[in-house]
């Protein structure tokens, strides 16, 4: 029989174990021996860190990834010029792996695509991101217009968490007549932050729309008006960690870094913009504002039902790709489903070359009001 191996890379989400379990179950039914590679691409370096998952009990509802993760990318980069692909190929051969399924975002699946394109290795990509910024060319009908949108495994669970978080802190904001600035993960895309609005956050700042010097003045004025108009004299403002915000001190619109340390890809750790915005609101408007960081709360915890259905449905498409020996593909939804309800899913697959970053389109955001547009 053939052997299929699964690896998980990049940041964790609540839906990864569900994806692993669903792919494992289906591949075993097809007669594959199923391996799990630990710590992402790193588990294919050195002698390999590989487990047999074929008959192991597996809890798909438990969050995170039991296979663990890393941000290692075997292809040469500016930070790490070594080409570690030969070692990867050696281990794929050592463990007699016929097909590799990579559960990841842009980076993990980008490396998988290169492995397929340059070495002809059979790979299938599987989407995973809480940021929901993986381009999949899915069309969503929004306010009468068909626009490109995505629902990636991990996002629905994370969005639910952000929604609940925003809904909860409201009672404290109301009790103290305060403004709470809620900082939500999202380096380049505001999808996750936008879900705080479904939890009642009145205003939102997302990375897609930069806050210049002029816009900042309008923003502060809008905050004042909204606060004074609110029945309980309180506001919840959701802010993406990656928002581009005008810095009075430097006169530049920039992403605020809490840390200047960068990881192996040159990514700095984000965080701290919520506190900066809250203090500017307090100082400039004289309204008490506090910052709150949602952070890993969004990314952690159990897989929600929506993600469970999404991952199992996309895993059905993996079966289809395996049977057709159609590699270099990634299963995606073929139409957008109502985010709030569980509806029928339809799937298709796209060439992994089409996978890329996908910001939130302008239709979703009202830049004049600093609000997420109503569907
Ligand atoms: O890509 C998911 C994400 O949560 C981003 O929103 C965030 O910028 C990044 O990962 C932070 O990752 P970590 O804390 O693991 O470095």
UniProtKB/TrEMBL annotation:
The keyword Kinase applies. SUPFAM superfamilies: Phosphofructokinase. Residues 4-322 form the Phosphofructokinase domain. GO terms for biological process: canonical glycolysis; fructose 1,6-bisphosphate metabolic process; fructose 6-phosphate metabolic process. GO terms for cellular component: 6-phosphofructokinase complex. Pfam families: PFK. Pathway: Carbohydrate degradation; glycolysis; D-glyceraldehyde 3-phosphate and glycerone phosphate from D-glucose: step 3/4. Its cofactor is Mg(2+). Gene3D superfamilies: 3.40.50.450, Phosphofructokinase domain. InterPro entries: ATP_PFK, Phosphofructokinase_dom, PKF_sf. The keyword Cell division does not apply. GO terms for molecular function: 6-phosphofructokinase activity; AMP binding; ATP binding; fructose-6-phosphate binding; identical protein binding; metal ion binding; monosaccharide binding. Keywords: Cytoplasm, Glycolysis, Kinase, Magnesium, Metal-binding, Transferase. Belongs to the phosphofructokinase type A (PFKA) family. This is 6-phosphofructokinase 1. It comes from Williamwhitmania taraxaci. The lineage of its organism: Bacteria, Pseudomonadati, Bacteroidota, Bacteroidia, Bacteroidales.
